[in-house]
Amino acid sequence: MKQKIVFATNNAHKLEEVAAILGENYEVLSLREIGCHDDIPETADTFSGNAIQKAQYIKEHYGYDCFADDSGLEVDVLGGAPGVFSARYSGGGSEANMDKLLHNLTEKSERGAQFRTVIALLVGEETHLFEGVVRGTITHERRGEGGFGYDPIFVPEGYDLTFAQLGSEIKNRISHRAKAVEKLAEYLCKQLKIEN
Ligand code: ITT
Question: How far apart (Å, rounded) are the C-alpha atoms in residues 67 and 55?
């Protein structure tokens, strides 16, 4: 039987990626599927703080064991910005966020960056954190149509194409989210074996 688990996110792209990475043994329930249409608060100043806050909100208001991720892009030469503000960097959507970032990197040759995800899993009274990082560089212009957020301007280390060009199969194997979700899956799998 599939193990049901709630993913506390309003981002449909993240939900799709995580369901694909977790694979057939899990049924990942969206917030809509548990009847939640709330704007979940996200006011901490760290990824882990925000991930815990989002998961705790669902646990407190809806009673489900669940996990949430907080993630973002950290650019070396900008001191780790946009970081926890990745979704709200420009005040507009993804296009405006990329415009602002490319503008802030104009004429900068040092373009190292990383995507980072922290997943908080709340089961019973326990909280567990899982982290994933992928290093790469920021391009000078958008390339590719796939993915979401900053994917068209991020080239992961070891590749020449952006996440948006590489497609979901490769991204879901090497991304920050993939690395964190693999650790989550390993943990859930171990728990399941202990319980049965
Ligand atoms: P939830 O809080 O509802 O989960 P969100 O989109 O607000 O959804 P975050 O707070 O974690 O998610 O913000 C992450 C932002 O960082 C996201 O909106 C993107 O702009 C960027 N980001 C995170 N992971 C990404 C990825 O895999 N590819 C491209 N951009 C990503």
Answer: 6
